[in-house]
Amino acid sequence: MGRHSQSKAGLGSSLSDLGLAVASSLHRTPASGRRAAAPAKIMVPTSVYRAGGVAAAVSLAVSSVAYAAVQSDAGQPSLNSRARAALDLNGLEAATTGQDGQARQVSFTLVVDGASTQVTTKAATWGEALVGAGVVVDGNAGDTVSVPLTEAPAEGTTVTVAHAGTTTQTADTTEAHGTVEKQTDTLLQGEKKVETPGVDGVSRTTYKVRTVSGQEVGREALSTTQISSKVDEVVLVGTGSPQDVAVAQAGDGKSVSSAQAIAKAMLRSYGWGEGEFSCLVNLWHRESTWNYQAENPSSGAYGIPQSLPASKMASAGADWQTNPATQIKWGLGYIQDRYGSPCSAWAHSNATGWY
Could you tell me the pLDDT band of residue 250, with boundaries at 50, 70 and 90? Predict the structure, then answer.
């Protein structure tokens, strides 16, 4: 006999012994000591292994095991260690150890705060699977998961985790300034000029912002602080004539040069030229040296034109005591009414010592 035939015969003998071992382990019952109703032995001729090969032997062995299992359920002893060892050696352990009890590997899609990845796990629950994937879920903080954490993972599931959080942010709010117009004769009619620039008001609010998966879902105002106050813009709108503008540009009149500049600007409205202006300069220099506060201690004459009584200048303005322009305005009107021109008044003063 060749080596190939001998190998088959050896395998057949091993399986035959296996069948006998299984059967002999069940030959008695605990109650009566009688032999089992099933055959005590399984005799397989050598020709069977030669003709049917390994398949026939395995079939006989498994049949014996199945019969033994039925007898065990009826109160007979379970498989002995020799039979179990024989099954292990022949690769048949799954029939008795319950392979379903082993950990199962599943793959699933994990989406955390919008970022997706594929994960493979052998964890018993979704909670364990997430921990294994390095994902922390805090229900107290408002985190949410799309599957129950205590359930077993299932193949092909998409698990979505949304982390909740809070941050503090500040936001500025602008209050636009307004515009106020103010009329003035220091500008020509219709001309405009900004006197006071406008400033927008700014307030700063601090918020507690709630987010889910990094996206804002709500906010709560905590405090508001005024950063700057609103200031309205002031725009000057001109109503003045050229003379008014010239006077305004001459200054306040409290210096000699400023007072003379005001007088020169006003002369134009009377049609008087440079010659009349020279006479006026001489006349009022004699009277008051162009001092708007000059007062004659004897007569009470007052101001640049030395009005007597002083109160007559009130016809030109209530501020006659303090405003050089008001005094000059009254004085030119007086000269025109009384003498017709500054040079005529100057001539009278030279002749009489007064005008």
Answer: confident
